[in-house]
Structure formats: structure tokens, C-alpha cells
Specification:
50% of the residues lie in helices and 6% in strands. It is mainly alpha-helical and 436 residues long. The structure holds acetyl coenzyme *A.
């Protein structure tokens, strides 16, 4: 963050003295106006619900140019990462700042593999849940429960503790998601297989049973690995900001990540992949492509709350680059699995075409986001709809923990404590109950 020669001057129409505010330049992207001393100098706060114009931190991890539709992890374009790396390379990049060389790659794979098992006690937490509980309810509970197990690494001010917590989380999330799935279908849990790739191990824990041998399909393995890479981080989105805010109190790192899982669940955020697939299934049930016109009319109706799920994004005002890659993967997976005539995929492509030509969506710059196609890929792989957001949480865990660790190691870090514009009752006296 380098100071700029330019200053922003804030003046008031009531004659109060104007003040100069420092400006900082990032390496790319908009400059920021430093308002940290604003309250001390003027007695005024800024007002920005939903953080439409507020940079809550400085960060070196992920950069998005929403107008160009560009996403960079530590400077590398997502298209190159998706083409040339795998998920664990991406984790190394996000956590340590650069892609691993061959030795670092090997060491990192071994390190993560070393931590894939969860404590046997975790099964008892699962048993406390109803079998039909939503996987995100289970994941919020299980990730929070991890905070009760690792007393050797709870000092977030210690960089080694932070690192080992990060590795444990990355390693154990697939095990927990697969356990939540196996519990819901009443099958025995499958232990991790450390000779498989990260995605391959997850597929094995999900779909293998102790009764017979299971071979991981390499096309599915690659597709899932790509889903993980595309979801690994996305700068200061709602769940990441939740993790930062929660972690800013110095809480246990597993507890902070559990807060991120809870936030991700919402349909305006990670829950959109599940909502998008449900929406496609509903349109299909109502008559498929012929009913798209009716559906779009409903979406555009000011009096309806229906949204085109998987469309629109707070930052992207152009095609989400992850959606392009996901669309490509969707084609590959469906073709490889002999599902190229999949009615939901065809429906999604027709819906996308119609929406991209409709003035309502064009004028609002609403384009497909990553969730529009990721649900179709996951469904083709055999992942049940209810588990989609848990798979997203698995992938985003590395981003959350990288961002949390970046915040804690920032010398300027403070507990997050927004202020408010109070519009409620002024001080008043309690009237005795008989007189109210
Ligand atoms: N369908 C129909 N209309 C939409 C959609 C949509 N998916 N998204 C936004 N709009 C409209 C809004 O109604 C609003 O219209 P108006 O100006 O006439 O009132 C306008 O576009 C601007 O929308 P906002 O809600 O102000 O945009 P915001 O940046 O706050 O919301 C969000 C972004 C939450 C992602 C929104 O686009 C949405 O709800 N999309 C559907 C859910 C979704 O796909 N979420 C996934 C996000 S990506 C992720 O988390 C991985």
C-alpha cells in the first residue's frame, strides 16, 4: 500500500473546516481514501451498508476486475491456474504466496495427506444430527467442533500454529463433507486414502463402499479438482469478510472458519449453486424450455421475489471468468459420461442465451456466475443437490484461512468494529408498567 501525492479534500456546506484525507495506491485496482482519522477529526462516520464502496483491508491474495471479468490468484489469471495447476498447487499459492516447485509440491502433498483423518470422536457429533439435516447445518457444527480438538495450535498470534491449523482444515474438510454425505445415506464412513489425489480421495470417500473395489474416474477427478480451484478464493466476499471479522477477536481459527461456513450457506452467496439447480429442475417440471418465457417474466416482475439464480454478482459486471471455465467443464463431463443430451444443461444454455439478450439483464449487467453451471457438473458427478454448498465450503476453506492468516499477520490489524447511524428512540425514561 503506497501513499499517493494526491489528497482527497472533504468539505462541508455548513462552514465546518474542510479536511485532507490521504489516498493510497494498490498495485492494481481503484485507489482508496484513508478515512481512519475521519471520526477523530470531524466527529462523523461514513455510511456504507453492504460495503458498496468500502475496502475493509489491504490484501495480496486475490484480485478481481469486475468490469473486465478478470480474476487473479496472487497475480496468476484463473484461466492459467485452471489449465496448468491442481487444487493443492492453488492452496500452496494462496497460503504461501507462490506456486510450489517440484520439491515443495511433493512436501506439501505429503503434509496435507498426513492430516486427512479426523478424530474418531467426530462420528459422535454426526450421530447427534438427524439423518435428513441439511449438510451445511452439519458442516457448520462439525467445523466448529474441530475447535475442541487441537489445543496445540490455538494461539493465532503464533505463525506455526496458524500454519498447522490451515493444513488441518484443508486436509480434513473433504473427510468431513464425505462423512456428512455417508451419514445422510446410512452408509459406513470411508477412511481417507492418502495414495489418491486430493479430489480423487474425496470422490473415493464419497462413492466407495467397503463391499467392493472402487476406481476413481479421472474425468470426474479432474472436473472436481477444477471446481475446487475455481472456488478457492474470491477476495472480500461475504463469507471471507465474516471469517476476518470473526477471527479479528482472536478467536479459535476453526471457530472462525465455522462462521464462514454459516455465511456461505445463504442463497445469495454459496447456496446459489443449490438454488440454481433447484430452479432449473422446477422449470423442467413445469414444461422445460417452453416455460422459460413465463419464468423470465416472473423474474423481471418488480412485485415478485423470484430471481434468476446463478446470475448477477456484486463485483462482476461482465461474464464471471469462472462461469466460462465451468461451462467448458460442464461440456467435457457431460460428453465423457454420455450425458450430452442432459435436459437441464440444455435448459441452462437456453436460459443463459435468452437472459443475455434481454434488456433487463443487459442493462443491469447481469451475467452468469460460477454457480450457474457448477450445479450441473456436480449433479452429473453424482453429488446430491443438498451437498453442493458443502463442496463449495470445502474448496473455499483455503481462501478463508489464507485471508484470516493474512489479517492476523498484518501489523495494522485491529478487531473489526463497524459503527452505525442510529435512527431509533432518543434517551427516554421507563414509565411504570401500570401507566404504559
Ligand atoms: N435475477 C434477477 N434480477 C437480479 C438478479 C438476478 N439474479 N441479480 C440482481 N438483479 C437485479 C436486482 O433486482 C436489481 O434490480 P433493480 O435495480 O431494478 O432493483 C439489480 O439487478 C441490482 O441488483 P442488486 O441486488 O442491487 O445487486 P447486488 O450486488 O446487491 O447483489 C447478488 C448481487 C446478491 C449476487 C444478486 O445478483 C443475486 O441475488 N443473484 C442471485 C443469487 C446468486 O446467484 N448468487 C451467487 C453469487 S456468486 C457466489 O457467491 C459464488
Amino acid at each position: 500500500m503506497s501513499p499517493s501525492d494526491v489528497k482527497a479534500t472533504l468539505s462541508f456546506s455548513d462552514g465546518s473546516p474542510s479536511i485532507d484525507l490521504p489516498l493510497y495506491k494498490g498495485s492494481i485496482g481503484p485507489d482508496v481514501i484513508d478515512i481512519r482519522k475521519l471520526y477523530a477529526q470531524t466527529g462523523k462516520f461514513t455510511y456504507d451498508p453492504g460495503f458498496l464502496s468500502t475496502a475493509s483491508c489491504n490484501s495480496t491474495i486475490t484480485y478481481i476486475d469486475g468490469d473486465k471479468g478478470e480474476l487473479l490468484y496472487r497475480g496468476y489469471p484463473i484461466e492459467q491456474i485452471a489449465q496448468s495447476c491442481d487444487f493443492l498447487d492453488t492452496c500452496h499459492l494462496l497460503l504461501y504466496g507462490d506456486l510450489p516447485n517440484l520439491t515443495q509440491r511433493d512436501d506439501f502433498h505429503k503434509l496435507v495427506a498426513n492430516h486427512t483423518m479426523v478424530n474418531e470422536q467426530m462420528q459422535f457429533f454426526l450421530r447427534g444430527f438427524r439423518r435428513d439435516a441439511h449438510p451445511m447445518a452439519i458442516m457448520t457444527g462439525l467445523v466448529g467442533a474441530l475447535s475442541a480438538f487441537y489445543h496445540d495450535s490455538t494461539d493465532i498470534n503464533n505463525p506455526q500454529h496458524r500454519e498447522i491449523s490451515a493444513i488441518r482444515l484443508i486436509a480434513k474438510m473433504p473427510t468431513l463433507v464425505a462423512m456428512a454425505y455417508k451419514y445422510s445415506v446410512g452408509q459406513p464412513y470411508m477412511y481417507p486414502r492418502n495414495n489418491l489425489s486430493y479430489a480423487g480421495n474425496f470422490i473415493h470417500m464419497m462413492f466407495a463402499t467397503p463391499c467392493e473395489d472402487y476406481t476413481v474416474n479421472p474425468i470426474i477427478e479432474r472436473a472436481l479438482d477444477r471446481i475446487f480451484m475455481l472456488h478457492a478464493d474470491h477476495e472480500q466476499n461475504a463469507s471471507t469478510s465474516t471469517v476476518r471479522l470473526c477471527g479479528s477477536s482472536g478467536t479459535n481459527p476453526f471457530a472462525a472458519i465455522a462462521a464462514g461456513v454459516a455465511c456461505l450457506w445463504g442463497p445469495a452467496h454459496g447456496g446459489a449453486n443449490e438454488a440454481a439447480l433447484n430452479m432449473l429442475e422446477d422449470i423442467q417440471k413445469m414444461g422445460g424450455a417452453e416455460r422459460i418465457g413465463d419464468f423470465i417474466r416472473q423474474v423481471k416482475d418488480k412485485n415478485s421475489t423470484v430471481k434468476l439464480m446463478g446470475f448477477g454478482h456484486r463485483v462482476y459486471k461482465n461474464y464471471d471468468p469462472r462461469a466460462k471455465l465451468m461451462r467448458e467443464t460442464c461440456h467435457e463431463v457431460l460428453t465423457a459420461l454420455g450425458l450430452h443430451d442432459d435436459p437441464l444443461f440444455k435448459l441452462a444454455m437456453t436460459l443463459e442465451k435468452i437472459a443475455l439478450e434481454d434488456d433487463y439483464f443487459v442493462s443491469r449487467k447481469l451475467y452468469p456466475n460460477v454457480d450457474f453451471y457448477s450445479g450441473i457438473v456436480q449433479r452429473a458427478i453424482g453429488i446430491p443437490v443438498g451437498l453442493f454448498t458443502a463442496v463449495f465450503a470445502l474448496a473455499r476453506t483455503v481462501g478463508w484461512i489464507a485471508q484470516l492468516n493474512e489479517m492476523i499477520s498484518d501489523p495494522e490489524y485491529k478487531i473489526g468494529r463497524p459503527r452505525q447511524l442510529f435512527v431509533g428512540a432518543k434517551a427516554r425514561d421507563v414509565v411504570p408498567i401500570a401507566l404504559r
